[in-house]
Design a protein that fits this description.
The protein is an alpha+beta fold and about 100 residues long. Helices cover about 45% and strands about 25% of the residues.
């Protein structure tokens, strides 16, 4: 009788385990991969790269530093930007004048 009760309690947790596995593979794992790709992009930023900030500003990197990057907004304006606010790097082939 005790074995039957243990088996039924284990079977009742099976749907919960399956739901967690589905949640992990559909949500958590892809988000971790996207964060890793973004971190690698931030680590690979160099002088002359063109970026778009989270605020939608298009800029060119003047000097990458540890936590910040200096970006050129136009010919006269250079500002410091936290690396966390870089949305994406723009490839030279994607830029249209």
């Amino acid at each position: 009788m005790n074995d039957v009760a243990q088996n039924s309690s284990l079977l009742s947790f099976l749907p919960l385990v399956a739901l967690f596995a589905i949640f992990y593979f559909l949500i958590i794992r892809p988000q971790q991969a996207q964060q890793k790709k973004h971190r690698e992009m931030l680590d690979g930023l160099t002088k002359g790269d063109q970026i778009i900030t989270n605020g939608g500003i298009f800029a060119e990197i003047v000097k990458p530093e540890v936590d910040f990057i200096k970006i050129k907004l136009n010919d006269d304006t250079i500002v410091k930007l936290d690396r966390a606010f870089v949305a994406k790097k723009i490839d030279k082939t994607d830029v249209k004048a």
